[in-house]
Amino acid sequence: MGYYLDFEKPLEELEYKIEELKKLSDGSEIDIASEIRSLEKKAKNLRSEIFSKLSPWHKTLLARHPERPYTLDYINMIVEDFVELHGDRRFADDPAVVGGIGKIDGIAMVIIGHQKGRGTRERIIRNFGQPNPEGYRKALRLMKLAERFRKPVVAFIDTPGAYPGMGAEERGQSEAIAANLMEMSKLKTPIISIVIGEGGSGGALAMSVADRLYMLQHSVYSVISPEGCAAILWRKNGDLGTEDFAKAADALKLTAEDLKAFKIIDDIILEPLGGAHREPEVMAKTIKEYILKALELLKTKNLARLVEDRYKKIRKIGSIVTV
Q: What is the pLDDT of residue 23?
């Protein structure tokens, strides 16, 4: 049995019962296969019902699901001959950002991404996926390497945001993010970015300036977390609760559907029923197909056209309203 979010509790009870019946039937002469099939059908219908009406807050929780595949999980599933590279050549290596060289379907490319970590110990080491400036500088170093050897870049985005600690600010956190935005906008090689979980603030934006920007169906992408937004707008004397966070999530328009409607992302990558963590191999295969399809299109453009189209794409985001 895996980890269930609060809105999945009815499903947890039903799937627990199915597991118990499977254990009971294992090696037993009692034939309860038909009952198991009936319960499995009921569970599938219930899962469909639950996931057909997820609120933005539910999607935020799902994007943070502790069993959701992270960057290294996808690398292990779809990348061949991956060699991880470390360090920003200025200060240190940042475990919150991973990156290196590998092949997808035989095509050599540079793959970078945020890594939150599994379990308390690793999460502390990786700072819960919140990069310091050296993380962004490492990512930029690898992107420059890709440009030099004319290899495409694939970026997996999954961070609550850039780390706001004193040390990070002293070492130039905002400058590191700004440098990535500028350099990515003119990088002479194809860039594909995919939000696989949380796309938080500038921490996500620093890897989002791409020729193709995709979001997984149950990922989120926003300027601030619902909790942070609620704290700024409504915290007075009392504590904030789930209702406040849900209200903020609604207002932030942070779901993949919202971002597609705003024409900020290029497409939504559908997830298996129940989320990417339910069938990670299926999710990885779908992501791989999107990457290869995008590369097939992008490689037809010469480098000058590629950079120009990227610039125009970024400039078209947003609208001006005159009053």
A: 72
**CB of 222 closer than 8 Å to CB of 201:** yes
- Please name which of 279, 266, 258, 255 lies closest in space to residue 54, comparing C-alpha atoms: 255
Q: Phi and psi of 311, rounded to 5°?
A: -60, -45
* 159 pLDDT more than 60: yes
Question: What is the greatest pairwise CA distance in the chain?
Answer: 77
Going by their DSSP bridges, the two strands 80-84 and 97-104 should be labelled as antiparallel
How many residues appear in the chain?
323
- Residue written as tokens 């319960």? 39
CA 99 vs. chain centroid, Å, equals 15
Contact 199, 221 (CB under 8 A): yes
The percent of the chain in helix, strand and coil, each rounded to the nearest 5, is 50, 15, 35
Give the DSSP H or E segment for 156. strand 153-159
Place of tokens 């609760």: 241
CB-based burial, 95-113: b 16+ in 10 Å, e otherwise:
bbbbbbbbebeeeebbbbb
The residue among 189, 181, 190, 259 whose CA lies nearest residue 219 is: 259
Per-residue pLDDT band for 62 (boundaries 50, 70, 90) equals very high
Residues with Cβ within 8 Å of residue 6, at least 6 apart in sequence: 61
Residue with tokens 């793959």: 111
Mean predicted confidence (pLDDT) in 142-169 = 96
Which 3 state secondary structure label does DSSP give 224? coil
What average pLDDT does the segment 152-157 reach? 98
Place of tokens 């060699």: 83
Q: Which two tokens stand for residue 72?
A: 């290294």
Nearest CA among 241, 245, 199, 193 for reference residue 218: 199
Per-residue pLDDT tens over the stretch 266-304: 999 999 999 999 999 999 999 999 999 999 999 999 999
In single-letter form, the type of residue at position 201 comes to S
- Which pair of structure tokens corresponds to residue 316? 């078209």
**What single letter denotes the amino acid at residue 310?**
R
